[in-house]
Amino acid sequence: LLDVENTTGINLTESLAMWPAASVSGWYFSHPQAQYFGVGKIAPDQLADYASRAGLDIAAAEKNLASNLGYLPESGDTGDDTYQTKALVA
Fold this sequence. Notes:
- This protein is mainly alpha-helical.
- It has a domain at 40-90.
- It contains three helices and two strands, in the order H-E-E-H-H.
- It is elongated, with a radius of gyration of 20 Å.
């Protein structure tokens, strides 16, 4: 209908995945009064609640969400070497 493969260079695989893998598509809606916001950093109590509901231990949840933490994990092992301070300030 839209000649997508020739127009964009994006193909669908047999399992209907887009190729190349970095391809992005979607429906985008907008409204003049729409407001976008960033989610703040995660506090230790929020991480503990999430880990409990997700069936993860605290260390695994901290590693998975390292870039969203509002604190430095006690273990210090987040797999992310960007932490330089003892506490992160929002």
